[in-house]
Write the C-alpha cells for this entry.
Amino acid sequence: MQAYTLTVGDRPFRLHSSCDVAELTTALTSAVRAGGGMVSLPVAGDVAVAVLVSPGVCVVLEIHEVEPATAVAGEVDFPWLAADDLEY
C-alpha cells in the first residue's frame, strides 16, 4: 500500500489514502502554469486544506510503501505530520 505526504513550501501534509495522485499532480501543475492558484488538498483527517501554489513555491510529493495493517494502526517508521501537528 502506498501512503503520500505532500510538502508545499515548508508545510507537510499527510494525504488521504484514497487520494488520486494523478489528479492532484495535474491540479498542482495547472496552478503553476497559470501563474498561481488555489489547490484543494485531500488531507487525512477531518480538516479541509487549500494551498496557494505558484511558480516560486517548492512542492514535493513523497510516496511511502507501507503495510496495510501498519497504515490502519497508524504505526509507521517515518514521521507523519498533518497541518495541525505543526507549531507556529
Observations:
- The mean pLDDT is 83.
- The CA atoms of residues 9 and 75 lie 26 Å apart.
